[in-house]
């Protein structure tokens, strides 16, 4: 399946709601990032996700912080790994494909991700920042 086909299929609401899971979100973000400049890809990706949730009468499923955090982790890994196709990217980054207790637990407190603020706007990571901020002063 090409990136263009996947994007078109998703944007035309041709994906069954109950068969679109976390790994599919990661794959879709990868497709947008491959086809568009980063900020355009983010706008198109978030808009498509919001439309997808709204079309299923579940707009509350969209989560801004989770979406943006994964999106930029995917982008960073694409650049670091120079992974130009999905299969290679997925093989090199299995941690991004795990939903339960996934990578965001390294960056965010559970209470932060469950907050209304994080659901509605992008919130910067808050796990471990206190120690990282103090570390230079301790040395």
Percentage of residues in strands: under 5%
Morphology: globular
- As a whole number of angstroms, the C-alpha radius of gyration is 16 Å
In terms of per-residue confidence, which ranges show pLDDT below 50 for 5 or more consecutive residues?
Answer: none
Number of strands: 0
Instruction: Classify the helix fraction into a percent range.
Output: 55-70%
- Distance from N terminus to C terminus (CA atoms, Å) equals 51 Å
What is the typical, i.e. mean, pLDDT? Answer: 90
Keywords:
mainly alpha, 61% helix, 139 residues
Model description:
- This protein is 61% helix and 0% strand.
- The chain contains eight helices and no strands.
- The radius of gyration is 16 Å and the shape is globular.
- The mean pLDDT is 90.
- It has 139 residues and is mostly helical.
- The N and C termini lie far apart (51 Å).
- The chain has helices at residues 3-11, 22-35, 38-55, 64-81, 86-92, 110-113, 116-120, 129-138.
- Helix 1 (3-11) packs across helix 2 (22-35) and helix 2 crosses helix 4.
Topology record:
Layout lengths: L2 H9 L10 H14 L2 H18 L8 H18 L4 H7 L17 H4 L2 H5 L8 H10 L1
Helix pairs in contact: 1-2, 2-3, 2-4
Quick rundown:
By secondary structure, the chain is an all-alpha fold. The chain is built from eight helices and no strands. Helix 2 packs antiparallel against helix 3.
